[in-house]
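$ fold --in a.seq
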Amino acid sequence: MTLLRESVHDRRAQLFAWISADDAHGGLTAREIAEQTGMDGRTLRHDLTALAASRALVRTPGRPARWHLLEGAPARARSLPPRTFEQMREVFPTIRQSYLSRLDDCSLALLFDLEGADYSSHPQARGTLFHRFTAEALRTMQREGERRIPVGEALEILYEVLLQRDVPESERVRIPMRELPLLRIGVIKWAGENEFNVDRIAAIERRLSASLNYVAPTGELIERTLTGQVDLLVMNPPDGATVVDWKMTWALPAEPTGDPDPTRHLSYEGYFQQRFYGWLVMRSFPAVQSVTLREVYPLVSGLRKATLLRSDLEDVERELAILAAEFDARVQAGGESPLWSPSPGKHCSYCPRPGDCPIEAEARGEGAIEDGDMAKRYAAQFVVADQVRKHRVKALKAWVDRSGEAVPLKSAKGRYVMGWKETANGRRFVPFVPEDSDRGPDREEPDLAAALRASADQAEAQTVQGDAKVRRRVA
């Protein structure tokens, strides 16, 4: 059998199917698999490593190493089957916020979520347990009518939460001891730095739902229910509400400094959460006119927030309706449909199965780094590249100073050189377009404010002239 599928995702799926189809295919070395499948050895090693990373295969150490199916792997690598609308609606009677958020970033990442078995990384488990702690602590404060909770009592609640005695087996998570100090730090800072008006708390770890409509390709009006679970919902009289989202991370977004768009300073997923939860709360509570998302970072005592108004609701609902329609269309089409195309970006860092993505890591932009080892390689390459750049710049400056001429650079758009350029802030050694280039000289960035003022003045003058003509005709 020869595996020659061009798509990386399809090729790896076919390789996994070949190994799982026959017991004799398990326990083979990479060389034996290459001989029997006709695959290139280097490509095969990459694919085997990716399948191991996605929990489909396991590598047995040895010389040479052998590859086996991981127990339970068929469920992990199952393909999403095509469904009719009725079948799709039976499997997905509601659409979770997390599904739409993933789809908003990348269709293929959502497919990985839908096809894969449930699991959580250690940082995800840490966040899950912290959310369970805050829920239990807030409920305790509500019962006792207290605005604060002593640190000692908060820690006792944490240790009780860590036992997970009242948690269904399917929802229990595993957290190693090395993660526990961060949990304790988060709990101590949370208890010591926060005060809550418990009388205004409307929901704690509660799943809300609301419905919207979209028009199907057949012209039929489809109603779908969207759901989302808020960490904490607080009412702000007379007509406001706040959704609090706990973030157990050290990565605090940039500080807002006069930016007219406060959503720029939320976390990466914060923009979607702000719009989704704002819509969900205002649909669930008709009297609410504004919803503020507050991202709280207990580890660094940080806070970021942004507000959605009821006047924004129609636009948000149209956007969510489009996502709901796209979700339904993809699920009905099945996992083999080309609708599940990947989209590179920062979200690649959160992908559940980066090894199965057909986009090469170098092409993923901000989301290129898949794990800690890759981050170390990038950091080392950056240091080396920075040193090379510094060395090259010094050498180029010396050459230009000695020769008196800028160094020509290849450019499809005309002449381009590297050398000293006179700017308003003095001389700079940069690539630039010389005055005699067929591209024309570099020009300063246009003064947009001046251009807008000029346009406004011109429009006002034309309006005045138009009014004068109308008055003359009336007279």
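$ fold --in b.seq
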Amino acid sequence: MQLNAKRSRQSAHRSLVAFVVGAVQSGVANAISQVCQKYGVVYFNTNSSSTTESAKDCHRTKFVWDGNSHNFALAVVKASVDKYGKNWLLLTNDYVWGRDSSASVRKTLERFGGKVIDEILVPVGTRDFSAILLKAQQLKPDVVSPSIGGDDFKAMRQQVIVFHLLAPEELDLEQFEQLLEQGRSAADATVASER
């Protein structure tokens, strides 16, 4: 993260760039964004789903086009509450995107009558999820909502499969897509009713 911001700062200071495109996650996007704002360089933020990047931390030189945490929560939470249950466990990567994403899920969940029974903060760079998954299994939530990104998510997902924590039918992509579509319809209705 510091290296990306440092390179952006050096290039901007030397007037070598007119604009910057990309980021690998919200923390990197935030650091690059601050440098671009300081030097008046246009920044096209293409990959940070944290609501803070498209709302609170917006400024005159930054353009964000990515779904944000609030939109993702609206798309899936209600349908998941209806289908799976109201008691949720949040697994949260401990950085801006993870915390923001879980906050959006929590707010949306409460709106639709669900509750968070616990939240586990997961340090960035975690590769051994056994203790976290054991605790999740002991808590017996209706839904585990992971706001875990990148390689952390890949490591967690692999361990979920290895430890047989999901039944095969819970891995059904078609079922997930149907649930996502139900969530989209609910989100559209919610937006229409808020007008």
